[in-house]
Specification:
By secondary structure, the protein is mainly beta. The chain has a domain of 223 residues: Protocatechuate 3,4-Dioxygenase, subunit A. The chain has three helices and 13 strands, in the order ββααββββββββαβββ. 28% of the residues are buried. Strands 3, 6, 11, 12 and 13 form a five-stranded mixed sheet that branches. A four-stranded antiparallel sheet has the order 5-4-9-10, with no helix packed on it. The longest helix has 20 residues. The protein binds fe (ii) ion (FE2). The site of fe (ii) ion (FE2) has 4 residues, from strand 9.
């Protein structure tokens, strides 16, 4: 049993503590209302007029008042280094496939590009546990515990959250395509600015007072789930210098007993950060990776209200959606 024993809550969700403990303090936040170039900050005493901005293509002279908010840490790896490692591993995987090696459907546990997992990924086989004993202290829920409004992450506060309103809809099915009925689906995510409501997320993006980023629902008799939310933004993390996670929504499926709980992430189509992300790329097989990406679905979009995405979850078989290993939950997740 791991941290995953605690179901997601706004106050203490281990999976939402997405970033490793800060190794370096964040740079100063850009003053509100300033029109500086991204990544720049005013030095104390400098006096750019309000609303001023440098023209495109202008060159800053050395020692000018505009400096990057962050500088490369000599100990931090670059994106180029990370990307080279990922590319080499994928090339080796493809070569292996060509020579008869088995296809992989999940991520590598021993995956050096995900730096903070090097010393904490599982190295031993799973232990078998008596499920009946676990059920004596594991969380339980009843269908009446789930309120209808919990599947709408945009109505949890007094006002409208900022961002692109979206509807996410899909089916939970088994390997034979049969619906998984009355399944508890829990979701949690960053806000439109890429900020989590979590004490460990202190990067300089705004918290939205009208958005917590947690919801849950049950699948219906045909295995369908649906929720409304705000499209999350990408966010920085400290795996390497200038590391950014693609926008994603975390999913948990409870199963019929707590020991069956699985956790995974849904991504958005066309994200330019896919190729750069060590977590997404920890799945070697491109077809398996693509199963984590939702598709835009115009039939799910709602007129003058929200854009729609479709994402199905297959629990078993060769088309199964990858889920995080049981002993990683709540520990490895970013
Ligand atoms: Fe996350």
């Amino acid at each position: 049993m791991t941290d995953a024993a605690a179901p997601p809550s706004a106050a203490d969700r281990p999976e939402s503590a997405d970033r490793p403990e800060p190794a370096e303090p964040q740079g100063p936040a850009e003053p509100r209302g300033s029109a500086l170039l991204p990544g720049s900050a005013l030095l104390p005493g400098s006096a750019l007029p309000p609303g001023s901005a440098l023209p495109p293509g202008s060159a800053l002279p050395p020692g000018s008042a505009l400096l990057p908010t962050t500088a490369p840490d000599a100990a931090a790896d670059t994106q180029a280094q990370l990307s080279a490692e990922i590319e080499a591993a994928h090339r080796a995987y493809a070569d292996g496939l060509a020579h008869g090696a088995p296809r992989e459907h999940g991520p590598r546990r021993d995956w050096p590009p995900y730096r903070s997992s090097i010393l904490r990924h599982p190295t031993k086989d799973l232990h078998h546990a008596d499920p009946e004993t676990i059920e004596l202290f594991a969380p339980v829920f009843g269908e009446r515990d789930i309120g209808a409004l919990e599947s709408d992450l945009t109505v949890q506060h007094g006002g409208e959250p900022i961002g692109e309103r979206i509807v996410v809809r899909g089916r939970v099915v088994d390997g034979e395509g049969r619906p998984v009925r009355r399944q508890l689906v829990e979701v949690w995510q960053a806000n439109a600015a890429g900020r989590y409501v979590h004490k460990r997320d202190q990067h300089p993006a705004p918290v939205d007072p009208n958005f917590t980023g947690v919801g849950r629902m049950l699948t219906d008799d045909d295995g369908w789930y649906q929720f409304q939310t705000i499209k999350p933004g990408p966010y920085p993390w400290k795996n390497h210098f200038n590391a950014w996670r693609p926008a994603h929504i975390h999913f948990s499926l409870f199963g019929t007993e707590f020991t069956q709980r699985i956790v995974t992430q849904m991504y958005f189509p066309g994200d330019p950060l896919f190729a750069l992300d060590p977590i997404y790329q920890s799945i070697q097989d491109p077809r398996a990776r693509e199963l984590l990406v939702a598709t835009y679905d115009h039939d799910v979009s709602q007129h003058e209200w929200a854009t729609g995405y479709r994402w199905d979850i297959v629990l078993s078989g060769s088309h199964r959606t990858w889920t995080e290993p049981a002993d990683d939950r709540g520990v490895v997740d970013e």
